[in-house]
Amino acid sequence: DNWQKGIPTKQYMKSMLRHCFNAWKITRGYTVTEKGKKVTIYDALCGVMFNAMGYMHELLKADALKQ
């Protein structure tokens, strides 16, 4: 639940791109591993979604503070 403390948008983007590249590699037949564990397409796509939603969350929080 550390995301509730806030994650910089730069970190969300970096992580989202890593997961996106993992998904791209997996769909092309490559095996992707992280920390010795095989990454599935589901892992990669969930990572993309989590980071996209986290990024959006941070943008909405910043917009709310402006109002």
Please explain how this structure is put together.
This protein has a two-stranded antiparallel ribbon. It has helices at 9-27, 41-66; strands spanning 33-34, 37-38. It has two helices and two strands, in the order αββα. It is mainly α. It starts with 8 loop residues before the first helix and ends with a helix.
Helix and strand layout, with pairings?
Elements: H1 9-27, E1 33-34, E2 37-38, H2 41-66
Helix pairs in contact: 1-2
Strand order of the largest sheet: 1-2
Distance between the termini: 27 Å
Anisotropy-based shape: elongated
Biggest sheet character:
2 strands, antiparallel
Mean pLDDT, as a whole number? 95
Name the helicity range. Answer: 55-70%
Total count of helical runs of at least 4 residues: 2
Query: Compute the gyration radius: what is it?
Result: 14 Å
How much of the sequence lies in strands comes to 5-15%
Structural class by sheet pairing and helices: mainly alpha
Number of strands: 2
Unreliable sequence segments: none
Order of helices and strands: HEEH
Name the descriptors:
single chain; 67 residues; mainly alpha; two-stranded antiparallel ribbon; 2 helices; 2 strands; 67% helix
How would you summarize this macromolecular structure in one to three sentences?
The protein has 67 residues and is mainly α. The chain has helices at residues 9-27, 41-66; strands spanning 33-34, 37-38. The chain is built from two helices and two strands; from the N terminus they run αββα.
